[in-house]
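Continuing the batch. This is chain 6 of the set; chains 1 through 5 are on the previous pages. Same settings as before, nothing changed between runs. Recording input and output for traceability.
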Amino acid sequence: MAGELDPALSPALMRETWMSWYPRARLVSLPCAGHYAMDETPLELVRAVEDFLRPDTADGPA
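Output for chain 6:
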């Protein structure tokens, strides 16, 4: 995850580094977050974490 407004660890930087090192990784960009997403956009951060943790099943969430 990366905050769109993060001046140090932007989504663009993540694509150039981490995403190239881990080709199966997925990048989630938080549109209104900077470096401290837990303070700036807590609900969006929780949603992204829950989406990641939700099991992948054909029938939907367990």
